[in-house]
Design a protein that fits this description.
β4 and β5 form a beta hairpin. The termini are far apart. The radius of gyration is 13 Å and the shape is globular. The protein is built from no helices and nine strands. It is an all-beta fold. The strands form two sheets. A five-stranded antiparallel beta sheet has the order 5-4-3-8-9, with no helix packed on it. The mean pLDDT is 96.
Length: 114
């Protein structure tokens, strides 16, 4: 019923920037919080940032000051602007509705390397 399609990832050098996009389709009216997650190889998935239906947002300490989450309700799209990227930011980035049982999308890979 709900699908997530991420895009915008790709190889970026340390200190570089990327803007990730997540298009959400299906029965989206009940979604109150959208979030970006990331998972590095051999590590658990962690929440990077979240944004509420009312517009308020939070970011993880690991990316605070470097990442900003936003949304465009008319386009059913959530964005993650990432600046000053570090090698430790390398991960598969995915978006999802907080606490919902729907399948995850394919994600978008962000390798941060020289």
């Amino acid at each position: 019923q709900v699908q997530f399609v991420e895009s915008g990832g790709g190889l970026v050098q340390p200190g570089g920037s990327l803007r990730l996009s997540c298009v959400v389709s299906g029965s989206t009216s009940s979604i109150h919080i959208m979030a970006w997650y990331r998972q590095a190889p051999g590590k658990p998935r962690e929440r990077v940032a979240s944004i509420r239906k009312t517009g308020g947002s939070t970011t993880a300490d690991s990316v605070k000051g470097r990442c900003t989450i936003s949304r465009d309700s008319d386009k059913n799209t959530v964005y993650l602007q990432m600046n000053s990227l570090k090698p430790e930011d390398t991960a598969m980035y995915s978006c999802h509705a907080l606490g919902r049982p729907w399948p995850w999308g394919q994600g978008t890979q962000v390798p941060v390397s020289s």
